[in-house]
Specification:
alpha+beta, four-stranded mixed sheet, two-stranded antiparallel sheet, 6 helices, 43% helix
């Protein structure tokens, strides 16, 4: 089990609505790619952001972002016990529902995590200038 899978499972266990994207999501779906961080598209509802901030200690995050930062910034990178975690907040505000509708799930440690489809992962990678494997 990869560290990114464990971090995503912790979020899901705390009812944080999010979609795993990027190389970690691709790797979890069998694509031969190295995942150096965990990229999460977070649902923008305030209650969800509250659940997210409430569980950050479970990731070993020492510097908690402000509520304002979670509402207004595009991306926040957190240093965690599981490595870097990027919260793609603008993408969440703009496209969470669309990503969720085409997502797949994977069970990790008896918890279902949500992964963006392979096609959506590659599309986001191109958008963020990361290209192919």
């Amino acid at each position: 089990m990869q560290r990114q899978e464990i971090a995503a499972a912790i979020a899901a266990a705390h009812s944080v609505a999010c979609v795993v994207v990027g190389s970690a999501a691709l790797r979890m779906q069998g694509v031969d790619i190295t995942a150096r961080d965990l990229d999460l598209v977070v649902a923008p509802a305030q209650q969800n952001l509250d659940r997210l901030t409430g569980m950050l200690a479970n990731w070993g995050v020492l510097r908690r972002p402000s509520d304002r930062a979670l509402r207004e910034l595009d991306i926040i990178t957190l240093e965690s016990s599981f490595g870097p975690i990027d919260l793609l907040l603008r993408t969440g505000r703009e496209r969470y529902a669309a990503l969720r509708s085409s997502a797949v799930t994977k069970t990790v440690a008896d918890v279902r995590i949500t992964l963006a489809s392979v096609a959506d992962c590659w599309s986001l990678r191109q958008e963020f200038g990361k290209g192919s494997a």
